Amino acid sequence: RRGRVLRVALVGDPQVDNPVEMGYARRSIYRDLRGRRDLDLCIFLGDLVNDNMSLLPESLSVIDSLPFQSFMVPGNHDRDVYRAKSSGSMSRPRDLSTWRKLVGYVDTSFVRGNVRFIMMNNVRHAAAGMTDYVGGFTEKQKHWLDSVLVTDVARGGKMSRGKVTPALTILATHIPFS
Q1: Taking the mean position of all CA atoms in its chain, how far away is CA 44?
Q2: Which of 19, 48, 123, 137 is 20 to 30 A from 172, alpha carbon to alpha carbon?
Q3: What digits encode the pLDDT tens for the residues 11-59?
Q4: Cα–Cα dist 111/161, whole Å
Q5: CA–CA distance from 136 to each of 46, 83, 120, 160 (Å)?
Q6: Which of 110, 44, 29 is nearest to 78 (CA)?
Q7: Over the stretch 52-101, which tens digit does the pLDDT of each residue have?
Q8: Average pLDDT of the residues in 118-135
Q9: How far apart are CA 123 and CA 137, in angstroms?
Q10: What does the pLDDT read at residue 1?
Q11: Which of 21, 99, 10, 13 is nearest to 57 (CA)?
Q12: Helix, strand, coil share (%) of the chain residues, nearest 5
């Protein structure tokens, strides 16, 4: 509907570490969100868990039970951790294997009303070590982002197959830009 306000909750870093903290999150932030009837959607800005990917299924189940659609980007703690058996040190860099398996996407874009939302993973491993990270996009991600934005610009505010070019674009990531 024209002129309707889109109501979005942005939630960052629930970062549950163990089942006890999952209980705290259920009784606090997730309970608060479940009670909201004034929201159209929710965007989780990463770190649903704290290096404990065994808690991701429960986190996603709770998020799926909310009374509105939710989207999420992975944070630096939403990654599989691989430790060497003997030393306890990292045996290989963290990755998003479990995230991809359970969430299904890492980068995505969608339009609600006249707003384009672009959700992108911007956590990159630093050259300094396997647990250090920096913010940024890969060349492949930049190409994908360009293709999404060019499509909107090419429409120039015109209708295309029943869709209006978004008036506003929101880029959601885990690591803030400065």
Answers
A1: 5
A2: 19
A3: 999 999 999 999 999 999 999 999 999 999 999 999 999 999 999 999 9
A4: 14
A5: 15, 25, 10, 32
A6: 44
A7: 999 999 999 999 999 999 999 999 999 998 876 766 665 677 889 999 99
A8: 80
A9: 8
A10: 47
A11: 99
A12: 30, 30, 45
DSSP E strand stretches across 26-89: 41-44, 69-72, 80-83
User: Which residues, other chains included, contact 43 with Cβ-Cβ below 8 Å and sequence gap of 6+?
Assistant: 8, 9, 10, 11, 70, 71, 72, 73, 117, 119, 172
If you average pLDDT over every residue of the chain, what do you get? Answer: 88
Residues in the chain: 178
> 3-class DSSP state for residue 98?
helix
Q: Which two tokens stand for residue 19?
A: 């089942």
Q: Which single residue is written with the structure tokens 């003997």?
A: 86
- The SS3 assignment for 152 reads helix
**CA dist., res. 117 & res. 146, Å (int):** 14
The C-alpha atoms of residue 112 and residue 121 are separated, in whole angstroms, by 20
Conformational region of residue 113, where left means phi above 0, alpha means psi within -120 to 50, and beta covers everything else:
left
CA angle, 127 as apex, 124 and 132 as ends, to 5°? 60
pLDDT for 90 equals 58
Which residues make Cβ contacts (< 8 Å) with residue 93, sequence separation at least 6?
82, 125, 130
